[in-house]
Amino acid sequence: MEAFETIDEGVQLCRSTPNAVLLDVRTPEEYAEGHIPGSVNHPLERMQTYDGDVSAPIFAYCRSGSRSARAVALLKELDYEAVNLGGIIDYRGELER
Predict the structure, then answer these.
(1) Are 94 and 37 in contact (CB under 8 A)?
(2) Dihedral, 81, 43, 23, 65 alpha carbons, nearest 10
(3) Residue 14 has pLDDT above 90, yes or no
């Protein structure tokens, strides 16, 4: 996948990538407080149980980028193509609640 400078740029790339998954790896409570529209919530703590389409590229984010970095590492071990978008705290777009 291509490199990007901001989470906003990464979200745009995700939305333009066929079959891509925008993955929020925060807790369900954090997700409910506000998430990027179109994202799917699958907390880091349950990443070993992720069973999405292995051919679908994954763009992961969390609050600051730390959990999503760990999630991406785990997903890659499970043979997924994944990239860390970083943290939602740097996101400048609209949030969904």
Answers:
(1) yes
(2) -80
(3) yes
